[in-house]
Amino acid sequence: MLTLIAPELESYAADHSTPESSIFSDLVKITHEKTDLPQMQVGRLEGALLRVLVRLTGAQRILEIGTFTGYSALAMAEGLPEDGRLITLDIDEKTNAIAREAWDKSPHGKKIEARLGPAVETIESLEGSFDMVFIDADKGNYTRYWDLVVPKMRAGGLIAVDNVLWSGRVLDPKDDSDRAIVAFNTHAANDTRVDCAMLTVRDGVLLAVKK
Ligand SMILES: C[S@@+](CC[C@H](N)C(=O)[O-])C[C@H]1O[C@@H](n2cnc3c(N)ncnc32)[C@H](O)[C@@H]1O
């Protein structure tokens, strides 16, 4: 993945955010050993940002779309209060098993509930409202996920969306994923139900607060 700022500055920013525990560094190592696309993990800097956002919003109930090996889920769970809950969705059993092993090593893992299956169907079946949603799954469905979750957000709730700069390809879209992200970004920016700001952190993180 292209880093949007100099790699040394990206590392400096991560080094000057709250350090990750050994559970996370071990998970990064295992993810590199056992999966083909370890760069899908949000990593230290975005993980720290997500944890801060959970604390800032005082979130109690979080939905994550795109678990992978569980880095971002555990980062957000650390920011939740003891009775907070995070539901995370994915279709991949193999990466889910890696995630569960990591969560089991953390006292915060018990706050996480993983559900396997196509995310659209799972979201449709979810009841109640969310204080925070993190969208980080298949890019072709981003607009669909957005339209499903916005009505489920409480007023003042936060939606964070990953990879919205898509390694810079949003400026010159060539394939279906590029075009899907471009269409999503326009859709979200024009959605009057939320206030949005796009951050140039890592691969681009859109933050949107429900009005
Ligand atoms: C970028 S990764 C998520 C990374 C994760 N947030 C982390 O920090 O480790 C995207 C995930 O979306 C999942 N995914 C892809 N299509 C999906 C679908 N239709 N429903 C649910 N999950 C899906 C993939 O299996 C993959 O694990």
Give the overall average pLDDT: 97
**Main sheet: strand order:** 3-2-1-4-5-7-6
Q: Span between N and C termini?
A: 33 Å
Give every kind of bound small molecule, once each: S-adenosylmethionine
CATH architecture: 3-Layer(aba) Sandwich
CATH topology type: Rossmann fold
Biggest sheet record: 7 strands, mixed
Q: What's the order of the H and E elements?
A: HHHEHEHEHEHEHEE
Instruction: Kindly provide the name of the CATH class.
Output: Alpha Beta
CATH superfamily descriptor: Vaccinia Virus protein VP39
**Helix coverage percent:** 40-55%
Radius of gyration, in Å, reads 16 Å
- The count of DSSP E runs of length 2 or more, i.e. the number of strands, is 7
- Class from secondary-structure proportions: alpha/beta
Rough shape?
Answer: globular
Give the number of domains. Answer: 1
> What's the total helix number?
8
Beta-strand percentage?
15-25%
Q: Would you write up a description of this structure?
A:
This protein has 211 residues and is of the alpha/beta class. Helix 1 (7-15) crosses helix 3 and helix 3 runs parallel beside helix 4 (71-79). The chain has a single domain (7-210), classed as Rossmann fold (3-Layer(aba) Sandwich). Strands 3-2-1-4-5-7-6 form a seven-stranded mixed beta sheet, sandwiched between helices. The chain is built from eight helices and seven strands, in the order H-H-H-E-H-E-H-E-H-E-H-E-H-E-E. Helix 7 links the parallel strand 4 and strand 5 (153-162). The structure holds S-adenosylmethionine. The site of S-adenosylmethionine has 19 residues, from helix 4 and strand 2.
